[in-house]
Every structure is written in C-alpha cells, then in structure tokens.
Amino acid sequence: MDATHNMFCNKEDLVNPLNSMGMQVSCILVVSHFFNVILRTVGQPGPIAQILAGLVLGPMSHIKYIKETFFPPNSQNYYEVVSFFCRMNFMFLFGLEMNIHYTMSHLRLVSLVACGGALVGAVFGLSVSFYLYEELNTNISMQYFCMIIMLVVSYTSSPMVIRLAADLRFGASDVGRIAVSAALITEMTCLLLFNVIVNWKVSHHISTGIGCLLITTLVIHINKYLAIWLNGRHRNQKYLKAPELLLILFLLLSSSMIIEIWGYNSIIHCFFVGLLFPKEGKTARTFLHKLGYSIYNFILPVYFGYLGLQCDLINVFKSLDKITTASIFILLSIGSKLGGTLLVCRYLHIPTSEGIFLGFILNTRGYSDILFISDAAKQVISKTFNVLLVAVVLNTILSGIIVSFLARGEEKMFSNNHTAIEPQQMEDELRILACVYDPRQVSSILATILAIHGSRTSPSTTYLMHLIELVKKIKSNLLYHEKEDADLSDDDDYGGNDVVEINNSLDAFTTDTKILVHQKRAVSSFPSLYEDICNEAEDLQVSIILVPFHKHQRIDGKLESGKEGIRITNQKVLRHAPCSVGVIIERGLIKVPGFSQIIASENMQNVATLFFGGPDDREAIAWSLRISKCSRINLTIIRFLLASSSSHNEHIESGQSDEKEILMSLSGEETVNEIDNTFMVDFYNRYVTSGQIGYVEKFVNNGAETLESLKEIGDMYSLFIVGKGGRGNSSLTIGMSDWEECPELGSVGDVLASSDFDIHGSVLVIQQHRDAKKGLLHD
C-alpha cells in the first residue's frame, strides 16, 4: 500500500515520474497535432509531424529546471515499462492486420527487395563503422561495435512504413504491399540477429532461444482454441467483453515478459502471435476495432514523437565533428538502401521510379535502431548515443519527406491498373468490394463470394462493407440504464442488431468455407453514401463493386421496393465508381431454391451468362470465367445473334456441331462488333472446345423474340449474368426498354429483374468500368 502511494504521491518529488510521463505524452500529442495540421497542407504524413514535434520538445528537456522537474532520473524505468507495453500491443496488431497471403505468394520478390537494401546497408555499415569507431572514441570491442552499426544501417522500421502507407494512401497498391512486406522481413531479421549477438556469450543461450520458440508456439496454439471458444459465446454481442479481451492480452503480456526476462527481445514473439492469430470471428474483429483506434490515435503518435524527443540537436550542432559524423552516417544510409534496392529492382524488372520509391521508404528508422544503439550505449560514452540517434532521426525525417513528395508526384505508380476484370489474366488477384445494407442481402452476396473463390489458380480478396444510413438521433427522456438493450448500445457503433446478424452470418460462412472476408463499414446519409463506397473502392484498388438491388422478394414471389435511398445510392455508384460494378437481384427463394443455396448445398448450380455484345457483356463473361472454376458451378454461355445472319434458326450447342461451323457463325456476323467476334472466338477456342464451359447460340429477329427466348430458359438456371448495356442500338433488344422500370440495370437486366417476368433464378447485372464515362454522367 505504501509503495503504491509513493508511486503516485511521492512527497520528495515536485512532479512524480508517472505524472511527468503523462505530461510529456500530453505535450507530444498536442504539439504533434499542431504540426500535423500545418504539414498536412503541404502533403506531409502524420509520422513526420510527430517526430518533428518531439524534436521541438527535445531541446526543452535539456534545460536544467525542466530536466530536473519533468525528466527525473528515476523516471527511466517507467518509460521502459510503458514502451514495452506499447510495442507489445502495436506489433501484435500489425501481425493481425498483415496480408500474409500476398507475402507468401510473392515471397521471392519481397525477400529479394528486403535483402537488397539490407545487405548493401550491412556492407556500407561495416565500412563506416571503422571510421565511427575511431571518431567516437568508444570503449567497447571493435567487433561488437561494427555489428551494431551494420544492424543500424540495415534496419527498416515497419511501423513507420505502415503508417506512411496508410497516411499517403498507397498501402493497397502493389508497391505499397511490397514495401510493407519487405520492411517487416527486414525488421524481423535484424531483431533476430540482434538477439543472437546480445546473447551469444550468455551461457545456455541455445536452450533459452529454443524455450522462447516453444513459448511462442504454445501461445499461438492456446490463442487458436481460445478464439474459437470466445467466438461462440454471447452471439448477440458485437464485440467481446473487456475481461475476455484482457484474458488474451494477459497471455500475450505474460509470455512477452518471460522472453524479456530471459534476455531476448519480445517484438518478434508479439508479431508472430498476431500474424498467426485466427483472423475470422468476433475475437479478431474486437481486437482490430478496440486496439486499432487507441494504437493509431495515441500510442503510435507518442512512439514517433518520443523518437524525436530523445535527440539533443543543440549538443550535436555545437560541434563540427559531430555534424560531419551524423552527415556521413545519413548519406551512407540513404546511399546503401537506395543502391541496394535499385540493383534488386533492376534484376526483377521493376521500374526505376518504383525502385527509387522503395529505396527511400525502406530507409526509414524507428524503435529498434534506438534499441541497438542503447544496448551499445551501456558501454559507450553518451555523446556516441546522441550523435547516432540524431543521425537516425534526421535520416527518417528526410526519407519520409522525400517519400511524400514522390507519392504525390508519381500518382500513376499507385493507381489501380485493374479497374475492370476483362483485361486481367486468370492468375491475377481479383479484389472485390461487396456491399450490404441489411442482413436480408447477405446470403446472395456470400453466395457470390463463394462462387468467385472457387479456384485456387484465380486468387481473390473480398471486402464486405456494411452500409449504414446516418439518421438524426431521437431525443429521449429515458436514462441510459432505462433504455432497452442498454448493454448492447455503443455510442461508437451504428447499425443496431443488423451488425450482429451480419457478423454472425459472415462468421458462419467463414467457418464453413474457410474463406476470409475483410469487413469494412460506412456510416453516412444516403445522398453522400456513394462517396464512401467509391473512395473505399479506390483506396482498396478493387476491380469490381457488388451492390444489392433495392428490391427484395416477398413471400408471393413479387419484388417489393425498399428504401428509395438505396436505389439512388446504387445509381450514383454506377455513375461514379472507379471500377466495374455488379448489381445483384436475389430471386428464386420461393418456388425453387435459388443461387444462395450454393452455400448450404453441395448440389450443382446451373448458371447462364447472356451475351448480346458490347463491353459490359464481355465483362460479364470475364466474371463468369472466374466462377466457372468453382466445383459447384455449371456455366453455360448463351449468345444471342440476329436470325438474318444464319440460314437456320436452331440452337447450336457445344458437342452437337462441327467446330468449324460454330467458328464461322462467330466470325461471319457482319452486324456484331469486331471486338466481340475476336473475343468470342478466343473464348470458344480456350474454354468451349475443351469442354470446360457450355456454349449455346440463339437466333432472334427483334426484342420480342429475345424476350420469348428468355422466358424459355427462365426455369433452367439459378443465376443469370448479363451486362448492363453498351450495345448501342442493337436489333436484339429493340422494344425491350419501352416499359423499363429500372433503367440503371439496362434493357435486359430490367426485364430479368421485373416482377412480371417469371424466372426462378437470381440475376447479376455487370457494368464494365470505362474511363470515357468520367465527367459525362451527372446526378
């Protein structure tokens, strides 16, 4: 009791170390926010402003009165303990957020990029370490000093790279993902080598290292079963309760402290525990929500600010020798990272502009550099620590500023090159942003996600965004505890019970299919909700946005309109989306099990893609090729042609006629665009002749006959895929738009979505992204 009292109320200290640390944190947050507001106007990211805030506050900490009052000698232990808690949490979060699938699928590329800068940095560090050893007049062995300098020059700060990628909005680009993956590989490797160097002469260091590995493995396995157990508890809650959250954090804390006590750094342990933590379910969702806010808004700003706070710039700038030493260190650090990265990028045929950008962003430094220098500083005079620390901090600021200018000047480097599906290869990753407004629409979205993830050769990444209408709060005279479902209320959350139902459906889907879906959320009024969708699609660099239709099917099979705001939002998304868009109309739930049953049933689903011609229909076929790889999908392409182009009006099916006859049918149509002919001939040769996909041709004279043909196949398929339009004044659809109800679906899509048109399958209407549309369509 007395010890606790003295910790907070020590009469001998004017300002208690715990209180002084709180004041330092407050100053860093206030000043960094001030710098951030100013520097953001010139495009500088948050971490640079936070480090500069620390640099400004740093000289004040060396004023005698302030140092004695707010930086007492006995406060060092407090800082070390707090920094331990902070880095434990944010490295766990980084591991939890990391896209391990991209790193593993591009392991050779990211490893070479990481090794290029690090190895050349080690060589440069070794060369300069002899000069620094003599210049700084150190008292430790040259061998140990050289190894520390090599680590300092080779190191890359993954927290700095991650925050720069987030602030400058290039994290979803290929260059951004290479940078983040390479930074994490470099940091983990440097920390592993540092642990080996520090503990090499310690007795039983091998057995202790094996013990750390066993502890990490044990915690990973315990978390796996603990997460499964916690995910099944309290299904009516959005997130875990605080005691459940603290249980896992306590396990992480205990294991990290054991590793630290054994003399090893716990950063690697925390990162891998987060990396291998189960990503699905309520437990991971809670950590991402609760930890993410506090770490990105409080912990990391203080972390970056304290990096600058420890520098004594005045002491360094008083001496020409120290300025020279710091300058040499900075130039060699930049030259080594830039040179090594450019060499590797040239070998990998990566553009020089991207190589330069990667070289500068991988030259950023952080906590581990201080760790390396601090360990050496235990045996070295203090001026050595300060000169190297100032060089590290100034190097990070300089590299960060250059990165921000490069990011603004080379926007094409980070632009989305896959705004449509048709130009992509089947082996390219397909990124999808699927949107839902309420739980009723989840089943059709998840069924579509399952179909698109059916092939291992065609990788896909899916984001599910819950769109929530922002409404004015209704005033109530009831107290908080008197409201219904007060336990479930959360002022930070919107969506009510819909959030719980969507989460439960998604968790069950992930458990059954092992498909990981990343969750997003947008809260806005209907007039501006489309902006959130389009901005998120642009940030995530997706190729297609999936939105649900504004109508839903009643028990009598008719389609009933929902909120008008949903329809207006969908129309705006179709106009302004930075990529292709698909509108899902769910049908077939009453008379015959619809396409949504693909999740619960192993039965084959017959899917038809209707091709009339034009870019939207080609996009529909490109999407269909992706889902045809699913083992539960039986795909048939139905092409509509004018009867005048053929001497007969019969169906030509794959396997029922000679290949030459079909190819003549495809290439001999004079009224069809030449691009469509070329596309279909290539498609037929690659997929139909091999028997992978069925192919049918239907010959019609006008829109009325097209409508009759659609009625004939209405009961044969559980899903119809069709392009929105882009066909011009096609004779195949003349007259079909005379009574159109939803023009945003196109003439064919509008017919298939009509309540008067009796079909038993769901409909997916696809619009291909075309740059020419930008600026031509208005609300």
Describe, in short, the structure shown.
The chain is α/β, with parallel strands linked by helices and 779 residues long.
Description of the molecule:
- This protein is an alpha/beta fold and 779 residues long.
- It folds into two domains: 1-198 and 300-415, Na+/H+ antiporter like fold, CATH 1.20.1530.20; 430-472 and 496-644 and 665-776, Rossmann fold (3-Layer(aba) Sandwich), CATH 3.40.50.
- The chain contains 29 helices and 13 strands.
- Strands 3-2-1-4-7-13-12-8-9-11-10 form an eleven-stranded mixed β-sheet, sandwiched between helices. Strands 5-6 form a two-stranded antiparallel sheet.
- Helix 29 (746-752) links the parallel strand 12 (719-723) and strand 13 (762-767).
- Helix 7 (107-135) packs across helix 10 (174-199).
- The N and C termini lie far apart (68 Å).
- 45% of the residues are buried.
Name the helicity range. 55-70%
Structural class: alpha/beta
- Taking pLDDT < 50 over at least 5 consecutive residues as the criterion, the unreliable ranges are 1-14, 479-491, 647-664, 666-672, 772-779
Classify the oligomer: single chain
Question: What general form does the structure show?
Answer: elongated
Lateral strand order in the biggest sheet: 3-2-1-4-7-13-12-8-9-11-10
Mean pLDDT: 81
Descriptive keywords:
Cation/H(+) antiporter 1-like; potassium transport; elongated; two-stranded antiparallel sheet; 2 domains; 10% strand; disordered C terminus; 13 strands; 779 residues; alpha/beta; eleven-stranded mixed beta sheet; Na+/H+ antiporter like fold; single chain; disordered N terminus; Rossmann fold; membrane
